[in-house]
Write a structure and sequence with these properties.
heterodimer, A: 192 residues, alpha+beta, 3 helices, 35% helix, B: 359 residues, Pantoate--beta-alanine Ligase, Chain: A,domain 2, 60s Ribosomal Protein L30, Chain: A, 5-stranded antiparallel beta sheet, 4-stranded mixed beta sheet, 47% helix
Amino acid sequence: MIMKKRSDTSPLVTAGGGFTVVELMVVIGIMALLSVMVFGMFSTTSSNQQKVSTDLQMQAMILNSQNRIVRTVREGIDFILPELGEESAALFFADSENNIRVLYQQKDEELSKRTGKILYKLVHQKVETKDFNVGSPASDPKLSTTVAEYVKDIKFRVSSANTVNITACFATERAEFQTMFEIGLQNSGVVE
Amino acid sequence: MSRFKSQPNCVRLRSSGFVFPLILFASLAVGLFIMTLTQYQSANRVKFQHLNDYQGAFNIAWSALVEVLADIQSKQWSNRSFKSGPKDKSASLFGGSYNLRVADHDVAQYLFNVKVRVSFKNKNHLFYWRMKYNPNLLDFTNLFIPVCYEDMLDKPGVTPGDIDAIVDDMLETREENREKAEEIANIIKSTPTLKEALEKVGINPGKVKDADKPRPTPPTVPTAPTPLTLKDIATLVTGADPDVVFAIKDFHFGGDVAVLTEEQKDLLDAMAKILTDRPEIKIELRGHTTGLVGTAESNMEFSIERAQNVADYLISVGIAAERLTVKGFGREKPIASNDTEAGQTKNRRVEFVLSSSSI
């Protein structure tokens, strides 16, 4: 009777209705396979997500920098340097009170060391014309602000009397981002 | 019977053995995927929030301004909507809102002020334009002052008139600084490198990108010299001696004047260039006077002096002296009546005549 019972049921099933060793091994094997797949997928997704997130943060930072540059230049009434058609790494212009404003790129030693790339920060210096001594020029550090960081290269090209084209390249350890934009001075003429 | 009962149990157990871990891991995978997407979306939202804080506000203000300008152009200045007093307007636009005030500043000069206070993404910005309407051109010139307003946004008791006064002060300062700013600008423009330009405004050029790079020279478009057919010029001259060919006839002087003006020197520079390009040409310079004052002799001397001054200048800019001859005709050859001032001006002249050997 016992023999018959065994022959009727699968040899892989135990008499008590539990799992056989083979069943357990198959399940464990499938679980292991699934685990590897799921965690592999998670790992890839997580890594990609982190990369995308970092890129987005960088892009947001670039957009902020771009907005700061736009706001600064919009206070101008006249470009000084570069001259029409010329390209330069710095921009000199006169603002609405005829003070001199300068945007220039200064090497960021700490960031360069950290990223392994030569990176600059874009510095804005205001020179107050009224107190300026042409014979002994000096700029006030209190009127200096950082407009953008992670700058690899910025080029200013004055394309018309009141328009400047800006091509900027920002970089991190892994990636580089480029942006190109145009700023028009809002002062179209002398009204006073 | 027992065999019959045991079989369904076996099937159930076998199925549950696979299904449970599958459901568990599938749920885990879906959960992680949703978490990833959520974070991605969140980062995207941050990106677009950053994008438009200022630029979006500016776009709203600019749109409001354009509406005001269009209104003036369609109704004409004499029927402008703010003629009887300041006009206010509030509206929602591009996901933000604005309050606008437009008012006359100086009616005689067609000047008016436009202030737009924009609320966008929980931030306030004030944009200010002082505009001038040009009735002849049906156009506007503007003066955009973005700095003053935002500083004043949160100050209590600030009226629109206060802002106008600040703008007036800024314009006054601009005018005071104009001459010196131009001087500084000229100094900066004359520098050969960025390094020197920075030094001229007191900025330390150390560690500045491209500081030593020479500034590019302005591009020049090479043009071939235009061959001038001097005989054709002669055909344009009427009322002159038919026996001579004139290069320049209208080279006039003021009354009792023989000294060359800067304008005349510019003309002679152009003439010298033509002579340099055409070395075969020789010129006879003929001086003339009105003869209204002085004797015939003194007029003759004065006419020679005029022609000689022209010759001296041409020689000083590189024209060989042997290519030039000087003659004086005094008052003998007027080409117009000395009764009118215009006629006298025509007679006070030096003529440039191509000598026969070069024709």
